[in-house]
Fold:
Amino acid sequence: MTPHVALLANPAARAGRDLDRVLQRLQALGVAPDVLAAGSPAEAIAAAEKAVADGTERLVVVGGDGIVHLAAGALAGSSTALGIIAAGTGNDAARALGLLDGDLGTRVDRVLDEPTAIDMISGGDRPAVTNVIIGFPATVNERANRMRMGAARYTVATLLEIPRMRPQPYRLVLDGEARDLHAAVVVVANTAYFGAGMAICPDADPTDGLLDVCVVGDAGRVELLRSFRLVNSGRHVDHPKVSMFRAGEVTVEGAGPIRADGEPLGALPVTLRPDRGALLVAGASAHRAHRG
Structure:
């Protein structure tokens, strides 16, 4: 039986150019989706919430991590499965869940596959799929989002923000155990990637009920830049200024903004927990991550 499918695209991203091809492929598969209009983040959230309320079986999003974040927050805890057709510049959620493989047609086919339940990160203003970033990467992400270029914008933004980087004091509480530290980077992760494919927490598993934490300590600008060059392969975890943790509850105290899935998520302090199996994702595999 053909599922009831709704389709939500990010009109501000490259997704708009792929939408016609996505619709043609779905129609060839016998699916006539409800196309949801959304010209702003607020409208995207409202459209996703209405899809859930209407009993939609699958909400398919076309775009990058931003539209995934907005839709997933609305679907969390519901029986509506999320289908992801990656068409953004970062695509870190799709990458971590094995949804970047194949051409556009293959990606469309996959949104009709059986869903997998994955965890989400709860505790911020909205739940997150991939990670919550604090410190230097949050300022990089904010700058990158203002740039009009492809995935290279994350590299350019990093180079532009390095001169302004200052490690900050934080208190990190992992399952009740407190650590006071100075850090340039704090990432609390549900999945492996951020910044368009950098493996910041390479062992993160969105089905294990735990959060992975990467802390880059009191590193200087040159040292930080060198460590970021190792992140693509995950080799930064062996750097002496990098500490990796895993916990069921993570509290970060300090000052500064936080971002989740590349979107604003308020400010510190924040207490984060994994929400077990909160999101159904069509065709997802936490063990088939795209390494390209």
Q: What stands out?
A: The domain at 131-275 is CATH 2.60.200.40 (Tumour Suppressor Smad4). The chain has two domains: 5-113, 131-275. The chain has a mean pLDDT of 86. Residues 15-28 form the longest helix (14 residues).
